[in-house]
Design brief:
The protein has 11 helices and no strands. The protein is an all-alpha fold and 220 residues long. It folds into 3 domains: 30 residues; 124 residues, no CATH class; 34 residues, no CATH class. The protein is extended and about 85 Å long. The protein starts with 7 loop residues before the first helix and ends in an 8-residue tail after the last helix.
Length: 220
């Protein structure tokens, strides 16, 4: 039987297999590095649907409702808290009382069963985060949560990964604002941010970067 493949075909086959292994290996490494940082892996920009359509763009951006009206404990608690049905009904017992999309709210109010909101932002259990501490030090809502006043359906605006948090912890003067502007959307400093930030760091007694980057600050 005549020889089908030349002797050099064995070398070509070995090189092809080796190249395939290298490509798959590199692809796997790239995927493991890329995926956790991508929007697909972090959930950034992915709208989170809620049990009924609630538009922050309407309530915050259009009607100008302050964040604290619904997230009432954000200045006094480690969590921002989720608004109760009673909070919703403080307006909707008078406004849009027959709107079909609000039937779930009315049912919740009548039967006493809380609405099961879907979480948008979360950190792992091994991470300690305190809303009260950040608000008191001049960290604006939109710094972490984005321009919720433009979101019809709220989405995660930032990764909340450790490396993202450390950008501020290493250099808080670049990010903090006066406490009076913490809840302002679209905030723009009236002066140089660096100069203002350094002044606020001193005024608000914000810890040094060495202290803020200590592992025990967030991992307790």
């Amino acid at each position: 039987m005549p020889q089908v493949f030349r002797p050099g075909a064995n070398l070509f086959a070995r090189l092809s297999i080796a190249a395939l292994v290298v490509v798959l290996g590199v692809g796997a490494v790239v995927g493991l590095v890329w995926y956790p940082r991508s929007d697909l892996g972090t959930g950034v920009n992915d709208p989170i649907e809620q049990p009924f359509p609630y538009s922050h763009a309407l309530h915050v951006g259009g009607l100008g409702i302050d964040c604290r009206y619904c997230h009432a404990m954000v200045e006094k608690s480690s969590t921002a808290d989720i608004p109760s049905t009673e909070t919703c009904m403080s307006c909707h017992s008078q406004v849009a009382t027959d709107r079909p999309t609000l039937q779930l709210v009315r049912d919740s109010y009548q039967n006493g069963q809380p609405i099961s909101w879907n979480r948008v932002n979360n950190v792992p259990d091994f991470v300690y985060f305190n809303h009260e501490a950040h608000v008191a030090k001049g960290v604006g809502c939109e710094t972490c949560h984005g321009r919720v006043d433009t979101m019809n359906v709220v989405y995660k605006a930032e990764t909340l990964h450790m490396e993202w948090c450390l950008q501020c912890h290493r250099n808080p003067a670049e990010y903090i604002r006066p406490r009076a502007n913490v809840f302002d959307m679209g905030y723009q400093p009236q002066e140089d941010q660096r100069a203002l930030g350094e002044q606020l760091v001193s005024e608000y007694k914000i810890a040094s970067a060495v202290q803020l980057t200590n592992c025990s600050v967030c991992h307790r």
